[in-house]
Amino acid sequence: MTVSLEDKEHFKTLQNQLKNYWQEGDILENDDQDILVIPSFSIDQEVGKKVVGFLHYEERLLFSLIRLRNPLTRLIYVTAQPLSPIIIDYYLQLLPGIPFSHARERLLLLTTYDSSLKPLTEKILERPRLINKIKHFLRPNKSYMVCFNSTILEQELSIKLDIPLLASSPELLYWGSKGGSRKIFAKCNLLHPDGSQLVYNINDLIREITLLLERKSYLNKVVIKLNEGFSGEGNAVLDVSGISGLFSADLSLEKKDNLVTQIIHEAKVQGLGETWINFCQRIPELGVIVEAFIEGKIKFSPSMQGYITPSGKVEIISTHDQILGGEDGQIYLGCRFPAQEDYRLQLQELGLKVGLELAKKGAMERFSVDFLAVKEEKKWLLYAIEINLRKGGTTHPFMTLKFLTNGNYNTDDGLFYSPKEKEKYYIASDNLQKPQYHGLLPYDLMDIIAKHHLHFDSSTKTGTVFHLMGALSEFGKIGLTSIGNSWEEAETIYQTVENILDSETEDNLK
């Protein structure tokens, strides 16, 4: 899909409107706005196939409904398939101080009734009448659109609706890719794994692995990454311990290439049911890099999340320790907030450098940077791994915390405080999945929540908020954010919820 010069200029004009909005205060907190939420995961369809319950990930942006706490705000939420009414009711009941009926009148839910793996935005673009319905609802000069990630599809929809998109221009997508991230890290002088440039065929990949092992012949593993991925999907780990020692020997480059060629098919591709053959088929289209696998006896996977306003101001809004799974720890499962005290302020400092560089290039809205934290003696080394120029797995739990508590993140100590100066912590997951949960309907979950008082307590600002409820019945999968006044309390709340769900569904295992 190509975009005409005229459309590009129109899109820039629309985005410039956001700068004018921002001069009058934080647009995210302004009342009397119409917000169009397009929770479209405009990513490679092959990646989407590997994520269990992928279509239901559209529910992760339902925290946006909490913006209806502003009494003049109106919101449109579009999904591929209809959402269960009880799921919507669940979120609206969380609103502090706003009558349920008042909020519901200002919410328009629309659906494409299309369960294919095509991006939601593409489905909307294929339905002109749906576009007209959306456009009719939106008020001129009082509307903007938000999305999961910004691509040429979201740009086209923004133009057709004639409203600004609160996200980076698709022209900047490269800087949120694996290859683009490495260039930003080098520009900012951030420590990052030794690795390669972006290549587009298997022979060049083999040569880049060879050159990496020539520089680092002590490596036991390398990580091969498609230039685009999601939650760790698109990575492969190759054990090179059997050949790396030979790279210090006096061998020709061709013989070293042959050593890599003999084992490269043994790379372990991350993701359920993925194979090396399928992985290789994606290389010509997406491109691929290779990096050194960072070892460490004490190793964590923290991240920071930032925000770039349309006027170019960079704000640090959170740090997390990511919970990773899979055989080689490459798959995102959830997160803990905030990151460990030992390195959370350093994460903020490094993330700010990246944010300032992205702002220079014209980026806006959310970005995050993933790191590996390795403890060597008494010092933590933070390796920058990847930039996400979009919303991510840490976005919805943090925004849920912020909207429900009306508190603030303090960059001086990296902690979040409620208005009553209570520290807040949480544990969140998109992947609480068990066979016995299969068949649970959203209504069944609500029965369990009510029976065991698992709902979020607005008086103490603690408890659990659920998401991905639509994935329960078919996939036995649920997401949750458990908020406490300490890590220990958040952990206890999370574990209590899991134990109760297990107990309530144990008969399903018989």
Verbal overview:
The protein has 510 residues and is of the alpha+beta class. It is built from 16 helices and 19 strands. It has helices at 5-23, 45-49, 85-92, 100-105, 120-125, 128-137, 152-161, 178-187, 202-215, 253-263, 276-286, 344-360, 395-405, 442-452, 472-475, 487-504, and strands spanning 34-38, 74-79, 107-111, 143-147, 221-230, 233-239, 268-269, 288-292, 299-300, 302-308, 314-325, 331-337, 365-376, 379-388, 408-410, 415-417, 423-433, 463-467, 477-484. Strands 9, 10, 11, 12, 13, 14, 15, 16, 17, 18 and 19 form an eleven-stranded antiparallel sheet that branches. It has a four-stranded parallel sheet with strand order 3-2-1-4.
Write the layout of secondary structure elements.
Elements: H1 5-23, E1 34-38, H2 45-49, E2 74-79, H3 85-92, H4 100-105, E3 107-111, H5 120-125, H6 128-137, E4 143-147, H7 152-161, H8 178-187, H9 202-215, E5 221-230, E6 233-239, H10 253-263, E7 268-269, H11 276-286, E8 288-292, E9 299-300, E10 302-308, E11 314-325, E12 331-337, H12 344-360, E13 365-376, E14 379-388, H13 395-405, E15 408-410, E16 415-417, E17 423-433, H14 442-452, E18 463-467, H15 472-475, E19 477-484, H16 487-504
Helix pairs in contact: 1-7, 9-10
Features:
510 residues; alpha+beta; four-stranded parallel β-sheet; 34% helix; eleven-stranded antiparallel β-sheet
Explain briefly what this protein structure is:
The chain has 510 residues and is of the alpha+beta class.
Count of helical regions: 16
SS-based structural class? alpha+beta
Sheet-strand content, in percent, reads 15-25%
What percent of the residues sit in helical stretches (DSSP H or I)? Answer: 25-40%
The first-to-last residue Cα distance is 52 Å
Rg calc: 23 Å
| Number of DSSP-assigned strands | 19
Sheet of most strands? 11 strands, antiparallel
Low-confidence stretches: none
Let me know the average pLDDT. Answer: 90
> In one word, what is the shape?
globular
